[in-house]
Task: structure prediction
Amino acid sequence: MSTLKHHPDTAMLVEFSAGTLEPALAICVSAHLHFCDRCRNELLRLDQVGSQIMSQSEPSEVDEQLFDKVMAQIDNLPEQTQNPKPARSNYYPALVEQLIENTGEELSWRKMSPSVDVARLKTGQSDYEVALHKICAGGKTPKHGHSGREFTVVLKGSFSDENAVYTEGDFLLKEAGDEHQPMGAQNGECICLSALAAPIKLSSKLGFLMKPWLRINPI
Amino acid sequence: MLDTKITVIDESKKCMPRASVISTEKRSDRWSLLLVQVGENRDRKAFAQLFSHFAPLLKSFAQASKHDGWFPGLSEELVQEVMIKVWQKASGYKPEKASATTWIYTVARNCRIDMLRRKSNTQHLPLENEDFWHEPDEETPVSLLRQKRSEDKVQASLEQLPKEQDEILRKVYLEGKSHAEASEELGLPLGTVKSRVRLALQKMQILVAPEFRDELI
Result:
């Protein structure tokens, strides 16, 4: 758990803590936090910074009726039902499970290459395409470059590229212009969550076959 | 543990920090205990005390917002919404994880963002902001003591930040500006904004391992 090597940078965690991170990226950070107690710890302290800044500010007088208004609303609250959300498998981070549920029947795995399947997730965001990627055991993906930023969090299994091995919870950012050739681990399939900002450029011969799947297409 | 550490410090240095630790612990305990009472016993008197302390702070937090689409009329609406959420969610509050102040701040932050999203017609996020903060069932390994001491430290060190670092943290946390927006407003390169935030956090010893983080991304 705490052996993760690849984390979101401080700026992302700060924006996540302050609530200003773009939702698609916040989804990736949230998935990483599920696996990483080190970043959860750091987030807790960043939240403390926010809370201390809030509590040091000059209190602002509130309408004297406000308390009664709030109590009246509390009295009219419907009976609290115990956790109305359905029990989840806990296989994926809760937020990812929820995105899968929200996507519902529209969730479909498509072949992107002989060894990679992709399923888009519905997030209502137009700037990023959020998707699950599945690389089969030992699967080799075509070498590709990125014309926009891509954030990836490993949810299950592991994969490697020229730079490193990425295991469950690892968080990677590929900047525009970065090239890499991910390979699934031999011992089982690898599932990743990704947020992609713009179309990927393929640099291998087979590339043109895959283009239709790689075009950014948020749902 | 605190005591054994303090006994090795000489007497003259002992009094000051210890006194401040105790007073802050008492203070944060007070709100946290009240919140626990609200959660466990639906205690209205405890809730009224929380309300009179936090509602004015929440209102100024709301008024500080410089988000696009935020307007002054939303401030008391936010206070109401947050306090109702506090009542509803209090039973899930775990004092060993966060002080009442931090917990209520996170409720307020999430409400503020959700309120903005509801008012805007351009975003159709099928998620509430609190959904991003689900925690796995296992406990975050933060002991009660460390938790309180770090909160103390945060408060004290905030007051000692140089003006430009204090200003940037306020922009980020109170006004709700992204780093990119802050850079535009201050007329500073994005990298400068990021490093200013990081310097402030390093000074406050918020970052787990700054030397490790610097090599990332």
Q: What stands out?
A: Chain A touches chain B through 68 residues (CB under 8 Å). The CA atoms of residues 7 and 171 of chain A lie 5 Å apart.
